[in-house]
TrEMBL record:
Function of the molecule: Molecular chaperone. Has ATPase activity.
Matching InterPro entries: HATPase_C_sf, HATPase_dom, Heat_shock_protein_90_CS, HSP90_C, Hsp90_fam, Hsp90_N, Ribosomal_Su5_D2-typ_SF
GO cellular component, one term: cytoplasm
Subunit structure: Homodimer.
Protein name: Chaperone protein HtpG
Region (A): 1-344
SUPFAM superfamilies per the UniProt record, alphabetical: ATPase domain of HSP90 chaperone/DNA topoisomerase II/histidine kinase, HSP90 C-terminal domain, Ribosomal protein S5 domain 2-like
Gene responsible for this protein: htpG
Organism listed in the record: Pigmentiphaga humi
Amino acid sequence: MSQTTNTTETLGFQTEVKQLLHLMIHSLYSNKEIFLRELVSNASDACDKLRFEAIDRPELLEGGGELAIHVGYDKAARTITISDNGIGMTRDEAIANLGTIARSGTREFFQQLTGDKQKDAQLIGQFGVGFYSSFIVADKVEVLSRRAGAPADQAIRWESRGDGEFTISPAEKTGRGTDIVLTLREGEDDFLSSWKLRDILRRYSDHISIPIRMKKEEWDAEKSETVVKDEEETVNQASALWTRSKSDITDEQYREFYKHIAHDFEDPLAWTHNRVEGRSEYTQLLYVPKRAPFDLWDRNRKHGVKLYVKRVFIMDDAEQLLPAYLRFVRGVIDSADLPLNVSREILQESRDVKAIREGSAKRVLGMLEDMAENRKDDYAAFWTEFGQVLKEGVGEDAANLERILKLLRFASTQEGTPAQTVALADYAARMKEGQDKIYYVTAETFAAASNSPHLEIFRKKGIEVLLLSDRVDEWMLSFIRDFDGKELVSIAKGGLDLGALADETEKKQQEEVSEEYKPVVDRLKEALGDAVKDVRVTFRLVDSPACVVVDSEDMSQHLQRLLKAAGQAAPESKPILEINPGHALIERVKQAGEGEFKEWASLLLDQALLAEGASLEDPAAFVRRMNSLLLGRA
Ligand SMILES: Nc1ncnc2c1ncn2[C@@H]1O[C@H](COP(=O)(O)OP(=O)(O)OP(=O)(O)O)[C@@H](O)[C@H]1O
């Protein structure tokens, strides 16, 4: 044995460590309980490392194969001890690992520090606090460590008060691994409690796959105090479900785990579990719940999945890990790349997180596609609960637009019920010969959509029309040009070209009728003046005398109303009145004399607006006019 290893040596911390210690104690104080998470995480890593080395050198396990972490405290001595039987450290390793920071990016890290507590705390989090976080709560830290494979008398004792230097000396240690003993600072006695320690461990380290053990405590009635027993118990679940291979997990276990993390008592509808390797390394276990939470539409509601870094719990509701339109998804993402102390702010900027978000969105879409294809009833249930949220994806996730379009479901004239069951592909497959567009109508309610006068010609010709009445629909439609090369067209827009569906004789007839009705059209234009943009003859109506449409480039009436209701400015676009030359009422109007004609014109426009779902500016005038015309007194 060399001279140096026999004596106690005092060494200085690397300058950066001194700086880091100082910063950490001041910036992370409000988050001090993380020290336990960091130390347990290191202990778990040490066990992982030993497990790995022992693959080639089983003798390192010294017959003691079970790896575990022990956490204990001593009230009288005011110490907390975290022990593991992992890989341990040699003297040189301890000097290097616990005295210097040898990490890439160290210089950049220190250059970025500003002295602003909050910003620095964030940076430190990003950098990783690790072992040094012990000094937030302890004014003395002792490390007793014995490298796996080294004899009992070749252990080391590392000691520091966090004030710039540490000592290292030879020591004896019975078992391999590392004990870390923290002597708490004044005022930190709260941590000297079994309840407190267990609480922190459960919160942050429950899914550490190695058992974390603590001594049992029992209430002794005679002594009137809790006594610490010799017997130990495991305080974490000691198994991270998502880290196991799929084939080792039963459906029942997947379901139980879902209930546990989602605080749901119902089974999930579907899940996807994958380990992603490559540039970014992570495991995802994502679930679709059966039912939407009551506050799905509350913008302030917390959503997102649980984030773990290397099996250590980091945060709940990490909403950055999934796009907003998938906010109904629950589950766990466990990253191997992110720093343990990652904050929400860092998540927003991280490239690893971006990769996770994109990868997870694809997985969730894949899970939904699978459900839509193979479990139609479940997909219908999903759509009823979350369809409106998924529709937001059309505008939010351009990269996956094609996939999202295929997942959409609509009500249509084919089914005639409000249930949204028709996929765009279903529609496309039953398009009429000569039809090259997908037709839809939007309205406030399903009833208004399905009774829209615009539908008449489509009904007559047997052409299916999608009936859209969710609030999000108009917004969503503004992002969809076509599906599979077929343009989506509103039947409530002017210039609707049904030409392809009319035969030659029909077209000729229509031209003649238009000519015949030109005088009445001109009279209507004059009578209505500024109230309309234009008046035209239409062949889209069957049972209604008239309807209103908007110019193809104008915003739909429905969207204008939605915007107004939301208190937003909507460009005023005037409606175009279209009249049905085949209707008896138009025939009657044609015959009307000068005074009466003006009344008829207003009545036609108002009833067309009403049928559209609009509210009239002067409803009383409409009623008066209608009554007087009914009585033939105009
Ligand atoms: N219980 C332990 N057993 C063995 N080695 C340890 C133990 N705790 C710490 N170490 C060693 O000390 C090193 C430094 O630990 P520290 O916690 O400061 O940083 P880290 O774990 O590398 O990174 P992070 O900041 O992300 O936690 C570890 O990489 C490890 O080699």
